[in-house]
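Per your request, structure below.
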């Protein structure tokens, strides 16, 4: 059995288990949709009051918002196993069972608990992208669609990399450190607005430390056909999502170091 087939079987088993309780699954999905919808209302109120944000219209900001939330929804669905690694697997000794199976541990964790409820955030992101298309007059040419899909893939890789790093830290701390939420949920909050509105030090953090700008800001500028107020050339948005895959590769290198350090609980 190849790795991709194994992942789909693990993910299918996880989703089938949640589907046995459809009311719970639907309520959790609706809860995700409504919780993120409150943020949309807050942004709409901001633009309704002030009209624009340093020259950016609501349709343009909606594109940033929709892209970032779609990225995080998919990464969060795939990375739940890394999020709970310390508390649910390492602390209880259940992680040893994964080590006994002749398949990559990271792959098993990605299929460990694929959350159906994350579809609520994804649907809400799709609705905001539809609004952005109408409001900003985005022309979804084949090139623009390809760039959007490339950016989504890079963004999923970036957020998944953050969750993998959180799991790697659990080999030293056992706990799932809340500091990871600064870069996941905090990154989502920061990425849903244009990078140009932030202070220089924060722009550098979101570009070089956690390359959120590379997977969201620059590709969105290229899709909008808008020049970067910070002076970056237009071609940057077409290649910058590669930074998300590079970040994921570094995260898996850290994961390998943590896995080699792991000592069995003896269970």
């Amino acid at each position: 059995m190849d790795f991709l087939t194994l992942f789909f079987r693990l993910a299918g088993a996880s989703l089938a288990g949640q589907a046995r309780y459809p009311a719970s699954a639907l309520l959790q999905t609706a809860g995700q949709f409504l919780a993120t919808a409150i943020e949309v209302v807050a942004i709409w109120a901001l633009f309704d009051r002030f009209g624009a944000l340093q020259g950016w219209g609501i349709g343009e900001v909606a594109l940033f918002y929709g892209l970032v939330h779609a990225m995080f929804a998919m990464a969060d669905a795939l990375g739940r196993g890394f999020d709970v690694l310390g508390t649910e697997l390492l602390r209880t000794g259940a992680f040893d069972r994964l080590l006994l199976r002749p398949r990559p541990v990271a792959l098993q964790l990605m299929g460990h608990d694929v959350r159906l409820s994350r579809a609520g955030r994804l649907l809400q992101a799709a609705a905001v992208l539809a609004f952005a298309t109408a409001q900003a007059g985005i022309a979804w040419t084949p090139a623009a669609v390809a760039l959007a899909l490339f950016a989504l893939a890079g963004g999923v890789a970036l957020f998944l990399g953050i969750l993998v790093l959180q799991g790697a830290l659990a080999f030293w701390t056992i706990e799932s450190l809340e500091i990871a939420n600064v870069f996941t949920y905090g990154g989502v909050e920061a990425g849903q607005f244009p990078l140009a509105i932030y202070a220089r030090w924060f722009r550098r953090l979101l570009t070089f430390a956690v390359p959120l700008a590379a997977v969201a800001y620059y590709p969105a500028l290229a899709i909008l056909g808008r020049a970067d107020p910070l002076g970056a050339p237009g071609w940057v948005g077409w290649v910058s999502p590669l930074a998300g895959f590079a970040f994921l590769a570094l995260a898996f290198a850290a994961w390998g170091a943590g896995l080699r350090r792991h000592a069995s609980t003896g269970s």
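The chain has a mean pLDDT of 87.

Regards,
D.
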